[in-house]
DNA sequence: CGACACCTTGAAGAGGTTCAAGAAATGTGG
DNA sequence: CCACATTTCTTGAACCTCTTCAAGGTGTCG
């Protein structure tokens, strides 16, 4: 639960293109730095924020991997997303000034803390930042539309294919391999995200494996036939 | 597809509290009126906007009832929401300057057209409006989290109960009965929204009816035991 | 009034879940 | 660093919920 704290600059961050707007000129760049007050380290298994907690800030992930989830009254968990470097979390908290989901670090992580009051002040000053904030929120809405399609209409095989293709695309955009990666989450967490039980996730992995589409060694996944996977993905823009 | 056009003022609209921020003083109120350029009438069965269309505006529903939906590559439809008076649609278009879903009028409707450039300009001038826009988007994100929970974890009975309770709550907030209402959508559309087939929706209605929980006469629903329904609803804030 | 869309209901079937057991990996403490 | 406990993963078999297919009924609208 403890979190160490740092001071750093966006203007020199190599993730800037992922989480910040482009189109800032050099002189405004320092202003951008004001968005991030501090950085915060989160240990694997710790919560960045949780349901019910007062909302103050959005968080830009610098390193590490998170899952966000909501819980029903009777304790069922629904994973609402997996987030990695350059992605923004905390948007759920804006509407009621309290977070409505939990954000848990699946590996040791570091985030940039961006007080939302501050974001709002700066967005009024810089239209390009304002636009960026709007786009981030809209992107999340569109992503969730895709998830509704997946959960409402897709078979287990399609769901898992979609999950893998999406994951590998995002990792690839961050400079990692297009064919090999390590799953940061358990079968159960994948299942919760996809509306499946962990056994079904496991069986579907095995099926893909038998068909030579992927190679599965626990959490290590290698994609052997990317086209076969993509053929199963019938979602629109579920990024 | 044709749409008639009107000019009107937000400041005198009785739906203002639903779709616009409170906290504007009298003098700024005319500024608020500038948000809505025109009104537009949509006939039942017509599209307000559709997937791929250039995004220019958000729409505040004045009268009528809409469904929004996305389609997969192979033509499956997923209803992403049903919207009524005072609710805002079009947020999906912000991220890529194109709409990614279809918005279809389930009954004759009238909407206020709010060019988004305009909203952005005015939000920079009026923090209360800026905050409002952020909250609307965040609310939609939170609603969709609830839908993911519903689609990923709930039984058919729980899904339909949730749907009915949610619908009646929103209608009640708009001055309608707490126990009786008319469904504006077909069984198939309800099913698409809830990730069920129309037969399952119909059967579940029949089951509730046999148990004396509701009375079903085609699209006319009367809730007889609201507590029994609410007992089935285990979602957090799925408004 | 007739055509058409929508809804209901039954029966059979499929996909995913549940329950259970064992295997593999991971973590812990001596 | 190894032994043991624990967690995670895999796989099988039975089961269950929802779907599919089919037929008939009901309501609606030109």
Distance between the termini of chain A: 31 Å
* Major sheet: arrangement of strands of chain A: 1-2-9-4-7
Strand content of chain A: 15-25%
Shape of chain A: globular
Broad structural category of chain A: alpha+beta
By CATH reckoning, the class of the largest domain in chain A would read Mainly Beta
Any low-confidence stretches of chain A, pLDDT <50, length ≥5? Answer: none
- CATH topology (fold) name of the largest domain in chain A: Jelly Rolls
Indicate how many domains the architecture of chain A comprises.
2
Secondary-structure element string of chain A:
EHHEEEEEEEEHHHEHHEEH
Total beta strand runs of chain A = 12
Architecture overview:
Two copies of one chain form a homodimer. Chain A is of the alpha+beta class and 239 residues long. Chain A folds into two domains: 139 residues, Jelly Rolls; 79 residues, Arc Repressor Mutant, subunit A (Orthogonal Bundle), CATH 1.10.10.10. In chain A, 40% of the residues lie in helices and 23% in strands. The first copy, chain A, is built from eight helices and twelve strands. In chain A, a hairpin with a 5-residue loop joins strand 5 and strand 6. The longest helix of chain A has 27 residues. The radius of gyration of chain A is 19 Å and the shape is globular. The two termini of chain A are 31 Å apart. The mean pLDDT of chain A is 92. The first copy, chain A, binds a DNA duplex (30 and 30 nucleotides) through helix 7.
């Amino acid at each position: 639960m403890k979190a160490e704290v740092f001071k750093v600059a966006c203007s020199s961050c190599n993730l800037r293109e992922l989480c910040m707007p482009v189109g800032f000129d050099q002189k405004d760049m320092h202003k951008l730095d004001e968005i991030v007050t501090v950085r915060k380290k989160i240990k694997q298994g710790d919560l960045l924020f949780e349901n019910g907690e007062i909302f103050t800030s959005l968080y830009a992930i610098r390193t590490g991997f998170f899952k966000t989830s909501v819980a029903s009254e009777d304790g069922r968990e629904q994973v609402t997303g997996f987030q990695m470097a350059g992605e923004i979390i905390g948007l759920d908290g804006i509407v009621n000034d309290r977070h409505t989901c939990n954000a848990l670090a699946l590996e040791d992580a570091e985030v940039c803390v961006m007080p939302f009051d501050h974001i709002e002040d700066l967005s009024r000053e810089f239209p390009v930042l304002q636009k960026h904030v709007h786009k981030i929120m809209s992107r999340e809405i569109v992503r969730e539309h895709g998830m509704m399609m997946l959960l409402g209409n897709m078979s287990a095989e399609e769901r898992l294919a979609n999950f893998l293709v999406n994951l590998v695309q995002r990792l690839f955009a961050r400079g990692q391999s297009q064919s090999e990666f390590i799953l940061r989450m358990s079968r159960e967490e994948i299942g919760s995200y996809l509306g499946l039980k962990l056994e079904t996730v496991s069986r579907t992995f095995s099926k893909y494996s038998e068909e030579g589409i992927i190679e599965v060694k626990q959490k290590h996944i290698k994609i052997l036939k990317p086209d076969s996977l993509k053929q199963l993905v019938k979602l629109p823009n579920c990024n």
